[in-house]
Amino acid sequence: MASIRAMSTEPSTRAFAYSDYRYFWFTSLAASFAAQIVSVSVGWQIYDLTRNPLLLGFVGLAQFLPALFLVLVTGLAADRFPRRRIMQMCLAVELGAAFILFAVAGLANHAEVWPIYAVLVMIGTARAFLGPAGASLAPNLVPPAALGNAIALNATAWQTAGIVGPMAGGLLYGLGAPVAYGTAALLAVVAFISISFVKPPPQNPRGEEATLASLFSGFHYIWREKVVLGAISLDLFAVLMGGAVALMPVFARDILEAGPWGLGLLRAAPGVGAITMALFLTRFPVKRRAGVVLFIFVALFGLATLLFGLSQSIWLSVPLLALIGAADMVSVSIRETIMQLWTPDSVRGRVSAVNSVFIGASNELGEFRAGLMAAFIGAQAAVAFGGACTIGVAALWSQLFPGIRRQDNLDRAMVSEDAAENPANA
Hints:
By secondary structure, the chain is mainly alpha-helical. It folds into 2 domains: 187 residues, MFS general substrate transporter like domains (Growth Hormone, Chain: A, Up-down Bundle); 212 residues, Growth Hormone, Chain: A. It has 18 helices and no strands. Helix 3 packs antiparallel against helix 15 and helix 6 runs antiparallel to helix 12. The N terminus and C terminus are likely disordered.
């Protein structure tokens, strides 16, 4: 890539060999920890104030809807303006939001929750711009040979924050809501400083006007490039059918009879499996027959989900969930690498914005699908059926998108010259 700087004749395949990427990674880690602490603390605070579990459901919605409604704008911004600057602005907004939550939490006899939801929308809007900018910036900081390693390391940061962050958030909130929000604000400062050390990579803003064609060029590119379409839609339908997180309390209490401690094990197991596999991939990345490996691990994800749905023992369920997390990590690493290598830099922000919305939608709809089916056929049948469908999705997609199946070496970008030069018309 023309935007990658200071590379030797034989660039390292280790993303941490590049100082800009190291700063970017620390930014992702700190920002992810801050997000987890805020999410957990807001949930506790709203329930403390209202004792209404229904209001907890709006916490995630308030943060997801901005990304959905702004999908056409956030991606275009990442392609037209300096991505590092966008990240700085978004982190500054998140810092301000954390300070507002800190101030609101410190008010005596505060019983109104609408200011909290207003701040959540503010945070969701910042993250809607932060996601595409960050996803598009990462490939500018490492050569193609190190991109797979970078994606695995990014996933390690997210998964670590996803496991440790909620625990830390709960402990900090136990010391007081201001302590939790103050810590989140401090982490936002760390993230802001870290991204500021990243040298702005050369970026070629196309200077195109915000026409309908430019706004929808991400969708157009995805529809034309079947490899990218297949990678994004594979995640959408695999997660839609294989989602089971919402039903964990049912399994812990009624099926496995493990109680609250069992629920903690069940919720942590996929993350542990994912982190373990991510660390393995940073050392031994998938180099050959990547497309075939992708479909095998999506099918393995479905098989492990099916077996988890049928399990009656927590000692079998926990390893199966760890396997689910590990298989999903391999799938994510390969899919993200393929998508980034197939997408030209000039339209990468818009494609990343669409992808992030699809991921969010698949998670939300997947949990809804699992809960709805569980109400009619039971939790075990709902999860097992979803796992079987995920296996079917892997088999069907391998035939519908042979271009993915034929992917071999992930060390090289494969964007066609026509697509790179004319993404808006793709």
